[in-house]
Design brief:
Keywords: DNA recombination, DNA-binding. The chain has 539 residues and is an alpha/beta fold. The chain is built from 15 helices and 17 strands. It folds into four domains: 169 residues, Resolvase, N-terminal catalytic domain (Rossmann fold, 3-Layer(aba) Sandwich), CATH 3.40.50; 118 residues, Hect, E3 ligase catalytic domain fold, CATH 3.90.1750; 151 residues, no CATH class; 58 residues. It starts with a strand and ends in an 8-residue tail after the last strand.
């Protein structure tokens, strides 16, 4: 039966390109809206537009239309648009607002720069009731408002808060129904011998047979690569996975991004026998296992690349060469990963273990130097030296935390003082109410002087919404003594501190000489400021 291969689009949907196309009419409307916005007063409310789209279909509203509609809404509300957080190809069910690339940056780092968040429809913003509740709490804490183009949402009123909760509940129910349908489809697919949906395992591709039915067929190049790997693994002197990768890439059978781990995972996939498989989530290692049908037998979905005997013998050969690595440390084998780097190749230093005559040894090695470079035999000594150097340089720095200060009260006080000054200045003009007697004039002049002094004493920054750094009473030495090496490693990685490790061969000595150089950014004090995670519970 003849077949032809093809690429299928899931549910005939397509991702929306980041470079959205604007028509001439759209651009003309955008310019008109910007000109109208330029006429707004300086103290006009500031609006952030949130645009989101997971996939573009005929039923969805394009990002261009969403932005233009929201700009029209901002004009109607008398708001100045200060930014557009455009998160395209992002699912609102899977990714909450504070974890999206653009909107998340505005929420976590640029909160003082806007007063309202405008979105086209609630399901364009959130689809989970818990996410909506988190956003409402955040808005109330920071004095922000949520406004929807097509829903009656306004956090400044009690009715608006109730409405946003009801609509959010409906959106979550709809998302749950969608999730249930998708899960049901996958569960049904697993029991079928026909290929209905999903990405084929390496070695196979989808094709249409003469009846227009989608089937799995063997990819000739991938099959050739897999069979060559099996022969190389079955030799008396078997080739290593790294050697196989080099040959396959050089021959053009695999892309340059292929790694030894990926190749081994492909060779161990039972889908190569033509069976349906699913992810085996036990054991903490990425593996696939065969799905059994109602009769207790494997479900065949394609012709086999390897027979069961060929696949079994391949697994035995791979097991023979496999290294029995110790169980992974849940905290990670390497402390200060991303901080300790090799001076020569500037890649991360990682801990590698070897066993010789029943004894286990640990070495710090890099990623690109030949053979991992000279191994630093005692990682703990390197860690201790790094801790001492960091404490000597940064240990006495005060721990500063970022706090949000709203300027609403200060702005009200400034307005009151300005109105009072204007009132007394008008009253002190010729024939004014305070010039009729000497006593009233002197009292008014004294009051005016006091008001002007109060107005001049006000800090202009206090009238703005802003972040301020506040000392929490501790030094980083005390902070790291409480949190341990893990807290120090997290802070160093966060602020961009690096430590270059140079290993030098010493004649007559097996272990190399270790030299360490601490690299600290010039703005380290600003980077060290601790930022409270307002959405920690939302994760």
């Amino acid at each position: 039966m003849g077949t032809r291969t093809r690429t299928r689009a899931a549910a005939e949907q397509k991702q929306y390109a980041i470079e959205a196309e604007w028509t001439e009419a759209d651009l003309a409307l955008l310019e008109d809206l910007k000109r109208a916005e330029a006429q707004l007063p300086d103290d006009a409310p500031r609006a952030l537009l949130s645009v989101r789209l997971s996939v573009l279909t005929d039923d969805t509203t394009s990002p261009v239309r969403q932005e233009l509609d929201l700009r029209v809404l901002a004009r109607e509300r008398g708001c100045r648009v200060v930014g557009v957080a455009s998160d395209l190809n992002v699912s609102a069910t899977k990714v909450p607002p504070w974890k999206r690339k653009e909107l998340g940056d505005w929420l976590n780092n640029q909160a003082p720069e806007f007063d309202e968040i405008l979105f086209w429809k609630l399901d364009r913003f959130v689809r989970r009731l818990s996410d909506l509740s988190t956003m409402i709490d955040w808005c109330l804490k920071y004095g922000k408002n949520l406004v929807s183009k097509n829903d009656s949402i306004d956090l400044t009123t009690t009715a608006g808060k109730i409405m946003v909760t009801i609509i959010g509940g409906i959106a979550e129910i709809e998302a749950a129904n969608t999730s249930t349908r998708v899960a049901s489809l996958w569960d049904y697919t697993k029991t079928q011998s026909d290929w209905l949906v999903g990405k084929p395992a390496y070695g196979y591709e989808t094709a249409l047979n003469e009846d227009g039915k989608v089937v799995l067929v063997i990819n000739s190049d991938a099959s050739k690569a897999l069979h060559w790997c099996r022969k190389a693994a079955m030799r008396t002197r078997a080739a290593s996975a790294r050697r196989m990768v080099k040959v396959l890439v050089r021959a053009g059978l695999c892309g340059p991004g292929l790694t030894a781990a990926t190749l081994l995972r492909r060779l161990r996939n039972p889908a190569l026998m033509g069976y349906r498989v699913e992810e085996d989530k036990n054991g903490g290692v990425r593996r696939s296992k065969v799905v059994l049908g109602n009769n207790g037998k494997p479900i065949r979905v394609a012709d086999p690349i390897f027979t069961e005997d060929e696949f079994g013998s391949l697994q035995k050969s791979l097991d023979t060469r496999g290294k029995n690595q110790p169980a992974r440390n849940p905290d990670g084998a390497t402390k200060f990963l991303g901080v300790l780097i090799c001076q020569d190749c500037e890649t991360n230093m990682t801990v590698q273990r070897t066993r010789t005559k029943g004894r286990s040894y640990e070495y710090l090695r890099c990623g690109k130097c030949r053979g991992g470079g000279l191994g630093a035999p005692n990682p703990q000594e390197v860690y201790s030296k790094l801790v001492d150097d960091v404490l000597r340089v940064l240990g006495d720095e005060p721990v500063m935390t970022r706090e949000y200060r709203q300027g609403a009260e200060a702005r009200k006080e400034q307005q009151r003082l300005e109105e009072s000054v204007s009132y007394y200045m008008t009253g002190l003009e010729p024939d004014g109410r305070f010039t009729k007697t000497r006593f009233t004039k002197e009292r008014a002049e004294k009051t005016l002087d006091d008001l002007i002094k109060q107005l001049e004493a006000m800090d202009p920054e206090s009238t703005k919404d802003r972040w301020v750094a506040v000392h929490n009473g501790k030094s980083f030495r005390a902070h790291w003594e409480e949190g341990g090496m893990e807290a120090m490693a997290a802070d160093l990685l966060r602020v961009g501190v690096k430590c270059k490790v140079k290993r030098t061969k010493v004649k007559g000595v097996r272990a190399p000489s270790i030299h360490m150089k601490l690299l600290i950014p010039r703005d380290v004090r600003d980077r060290l400021i601790l930022k409270e995670d307002d959405f920690a519970e939302g994760f």
